[in-house]
Amino acid sequence: MSAPTLETIRIAPKVLLHDHLDGGLRPQTVLELADAVGYSDLPADTGPALGDWFRVAAHSGSLERYLEPFAHTVAVMQTPEALHRVAFEAVEDLAADSVVYAEVRFAPELHLERGLSLEQVVEAVLAGFADGQRAAASAGTPIVVRCLVTAMRHAARSLDIAELAIAYRDRGVCGFDIAGAEAGYPPTRHLDAFEHMREFNGHFTIHAGEAFGLPSIHEALAFCGADRLGHGVRIVDDITDDPASGRRLGRLAALVRDNRVPLEMCPSSNVQTGAVASIAEHPFDLLARLRFRVTVNTDNRLMSDTTLSQEMARLVEAFGYGWTDLQRFTINAMKSAFYPFDQRLALIDDVIKPRYAVLAG
C-alpha cells in the first residue's frame, strides 16, 4: 500500500464542512471585481502579489487580526453578479480538488452595502452554486454543494439569518452558523436564533473553541444545542494526562466524544490565528486517536493559501496517516453533513469507499 502524497490525495474523494465563501476567492477575481465596482483600496495590483498579501496578513497570531483582510473580499461581493461569480468559482475550485460534497458558508448581512436585500444576496449565491454544480457535472467532476448562512456574533441580525436558513432550506441552504470574534460575544447572545432553528427542525453549527476556550464549547452545546462545532480545537483543554490510562477526558470532552459531536477542524487556519503553534502540535492527532469525530477542513482557502488536499497532505506529513485514516476522516465528515441520510449513505457507499479502495490497493 503506497503512502498518500499530495498528488494522490488530489484525486481522492473528499468532503468539506467548513469553508467560508468570502475567504476563498481567487486573487485575480478579487482584482477584477474591485475594478468593476470601483473599489480602490486593495493592497496589491496583481493576482500573485495579492494572494501573497492575503496569506501574510492572515498569518497574524490572533483571530481578530486574521479577520481584518476579509474587508477587501466582502467589499467586492456587493452585487448579484459578483456573488454569483464567486459562488460559481468556488464550486469549480472545489470540484477540481475532487471534493464530492461541500457546505460553503457566508454571512448575508455583510453584502447589503449596495442596496441588496438578504433574500437577493442568498438567491445570487445559490444560483452560482447551482450553475457551478451543473458545470462540474458536465465536466465529469460531479459535486454537491450546499450553503450555510452565517450570522455575525457581534451583530444583532442572527434571528433574521436563522429565518433565512429555514425559508431557503429546500432551495440549497442546509443550515445556520454564527461566526466572528469569540471573546466577548458568547453564543448565548443568539438564543432566539437557535430556538428558531430547533422549532423548525433546522440544522446548525457554531464557531466555538477556536479563539476562546471551554466555556464557548459548553455554551454552544448545553444552551444552544449545536449539531456541530466549528473548530472546537480547545476541547483538548479538557483532556489531561493520566498515569494509569494515559489520557483522562473531562466531562465536557467526554460528552463531545460520547455524543459524536463533529469537530470541524481547520489545521492551517488554526496556526495562522495562533490557536496552535504548528501543524505538528495541532491536537487533531490526539483527538483522532481518542476517536473523537474529527473532520478536515479548509476554513478560508484564499487566506490560508490552501485546498482540502493540501490540508490532508499536511496532516499526513505531520502524523504519518495512511489511506485508512484519510478515508475515516472523510466518512466522519459525510456522516456529519447536513444532508439527508440516504444521500449521505449513497456517497459513502458508492463514491467514497470504492475510490479509496482503489487508492489504497
UniProtKB/TrEMBL annotation:
Binds 1 zinc ion per subunit. Keywords: Hydrolase, Metal-binding, Nucleotide metabolism, Zinc. GO terms for biological process: adenosine catabolic process; hypoxanthine salvage; inosine biosynthetic process; nucleotide metabolic process; purine ribonucleoside monophosphate biosynthetic process. The keyword Metal-binding applies. Residues 13-353 form the Adenosine deaminase domain. InterPro entries: A_deaminase (IPR028893), A_deaminase_dom (IPR001365), Ado/ade_deaminase (IPR006330), Metal_Hydrolase (IPR032466). Belongs to the metallo-dependent hydrolases superfamily. Adenosine and AMP deaminases family. Adenosine deaminase subfamily. Its EC number is 3.5.4.4. The keyword Hydrolase applies. One of its GO terms (molecular function) is 2'-deoxyadenosine deaminase activity. The record marks H231 as: Important for catalytic activity. It is an enzyme of class 3 (hydrolase). This is Adenosine deaminase. It comes from Mycolicibacterium brumae.
